[in-house]
Fold:
Amino acid sequence: MILKKTIGCAACDETGYAGRTGLHKCLEGTDTVKRMILKQALVEELREQALNDGMTTLKQDGIYKIFKGDCDLKQVMAVCIV
Structure:
């Protein structure tokens, strides 16, 4: 897969993009996660369980959108801890 660089113009203020694209992660409220929240589990424990349950992280969503051509690495690195 080839990463492409954006080509800007005056209409997009030299960004190469029109509009905005969001990066998202969504924590699914599985029974296990719900029990952990009720027991006031540590955030890192919740994160580990969510990843085991198939959660996509913000960084993973960003990487997916880079390869889709919706954004570039610079934009993803601006909002994600790498």
In short: The chain has one domain: 21-79. The chain is about 45% helix and 0% strand.
